[in-house]
Amino acid sequence: QVQVVESGGGLVQAGGSLRLSCTASGLTFNTYAMGWFRQTPGKERELVSCINWSSRFTNYADSVKGRFTTSRDNTKRTLYLQMNSLKPEDTAMYYCAAAARWNDGSCSPSDYWGQGTQVTVSS
Predict the structure, then answer these.
(1) How far apart are CA 11 and CA 65, in angstroms?
(2) Chain segment 73-120, per-residue pLDDT in tens
(3) What is the dihedral angle through the alpha carbons of 116, 50, 113, 79, rounded to the nearest 10 degrees?
(4) What is the CA radius of gyration of the chain?
(5) Each residue of 24-64: pLDDT tens digit?
(6) Is 104 left (phi over 0), alpha (psi -120 to 50) or beta?
(7) In this structure, what is the dihedral angle of CA atoms 51, 111, 10, 82, given to the nearest 10 degrees?
(8) C-beta of residue 119 within 8 angstroms of C-beta of residue 14
């Protein structure tokens, strides 16, 4: 059974930092592209970042470029998202996803999803 579990969300002031983690089990982690997505009520889920299986390639949404960094440790089956210079508009539920294909950095379609971790940035 595949399990994808996010952690690290919370409440932070604008300009602050958070580090999200995602651990996946039940799948061959080092063969999957891994993505971070986010969603706010009433809006579609959007890609934040995608990293290929080897960490050679990454892709970011324009809105987070230069502020967020994604990385992975295949030995720990863990994906990370370092979020710096956070803004109120970064407030969302953040989801981790595993995708069998890099697919030009979209991490879509994603095969497995976590339950999400809430990030709230206060102004």
Answers:
(1) 21
(2) 999 999 999 999 999 999 999 999 999 998 898 999 999 999 999 999
(3) -70
(4) 13
(5) 999 999 999 999 999 999 999 999 999 999 999 999 999 99
(6) left
(7) 0
(8) no
